[in-house]
Amino acid sequence: MARNVPLGNPQLRIFRPNWFMRLVRPGPPEDTRMTKYDVKNYLEKIYNVPVGVVRTRIQYGSNKKRNHLNQRVKQPDYKVAYVQLAQGQTFTFPDLFPEKDKKVTEGSVEEMQEKFMEDEKQRQRLDPRRGGVTEWFGL
């Protein structure tokens, strides 16, 4: 008995993740409902980052603030994931905004900003004849 086999190549399926993730420097973390296995698979399959260990924890939101009616306001809870790379692997954050070679042209905005900043620094310098006493403290 022959099976009914479709002709040609099989249908290619693309599975998109249900979550989005950003690699961020230490700071206020993002909210994620992913498990540690989801995080590991996501980083390995999508970003090709070799993951060694993933540790997660729940950060509880603050409950100390009060609104204008003196009612407690609770900040939302969020999950934090700490990812340790595989042995011998390193990761560097990409330089998204590299410094461009600044060529200051005559009459440009950059030149005017630089001149303004130099004038401000000169104006804020203390007068050596006053002995370190500020200008507003005078008779």
UniProtKB/TrEMBL annotation:
The keyword Ribosomal protein applies. Pfam families: Ribosomal_L23. Residues 115-139 are annotated as: Disordered. GO terms for molecular function: structural constituent of ribosome. It is found in: Mitochondrion. It comes from the Eukaryota. Gene3D superfamilies: 3.30.70.330. Keywords: Mitochondrion, Ribonucleoprotein, Ribosomal protein. Belongs to the universal ribosomal protein uL23 family. This is Large ribosomal subunit protein uL23m. The lineage of its organism: Eukaryota, Metazoa, Chordata, Craniata, Vertebrata.
